[in-house]
Specification:
The termini are far apart. The longest helix is centred in the C-terminal third of the chain and has 34 residues, at 124-157. The protein is mostly helical and 191 residues long. The chain has 8 helices and no strands.
């Protein structure tokens, strides 16, 4: 089985990084599989991001906020690369990354809004968890914003390569072969 197929099957479980809280140990059922796939892959951007994500899985101590932020950023990159069936960045993948980060930002803003409302009526034992969620969501938001800015700088540096269609010129060659003379349409009465 291909590494990308294995990772596609692991993505639904990997998304749980978005719900992890600092100070708790993060673990997954497919952690060993992800570690093995990461070691077997040849060097690529995907294997690098898997390495960042796997660092959190291989820790035996509770996850810190920085660990969670790095793993969440890596997860978004892994998800975009795997869904695009790529192991490295292409102009299309860069644009998809920006879209995915913006989607995640929207989700996090909604979580923040709801958490801030819920903390008003929460009991004291619930407040600690809600406060951690708010802090984590704010850190994720700032990390995703930085990633979006970095990716948009990449897009700005190479605008022509991002705008090019996949089959550059094939449409234009067909148009050149087509005559631009006025053609008589069968139902045209000639007026």
């Amino acid at each position: 089985m291909n590494e990308l197929e294995v990772l596609k099957k692991a993505l639904p479980e990997m998304v749980s990084i978005m719900n992890a809280l600092p100070g708790e140990r993060f673990d997954m059922k497919s952690a060993q599989t992800i570690l093995i796939v990461q070691r077997r892959m040849e060097q690529s951007e995907l294997s690098k991001q898997l390495g960042i994500f796997a660092q959190l899985l291989s820790k035996n101590e509770p996850a810190t906020m920085d660990d969670l932020v790095a793993a969440a950023v890596a997860y978004i990159r892994i998800k975009t690369l795997v869904e695009g069936n790529e192991t490295g960045y292409s102009p299309v993948i860069v644009r998809d990354l920006v879209k995915e980060y913006k989607t995640q930002q929207t989700k996090l803003k909604n979580i923040l809004r709801l958490s801030k409302v819920n903390i008003l009526t929460a009991e004291s034992y619930q407040r600690a968890v809600i406060e951690k969620t708010i802090l984590k969501s704010e850190r994720f938001l700032s990390a995703f914003e930085k990633e979006i800015q970095d990716l948009e700088e990449v897009i700005a540096k190479e605008p022509k390569s991002l705008i090019k269609p996949k089959r550059a010129g094939s449409y234009h060659r067909r148009c050149e072969r087509t005559s631009y003379k006025t053609k008589k349409i069968p139902w045209d009465t000639g007026t």
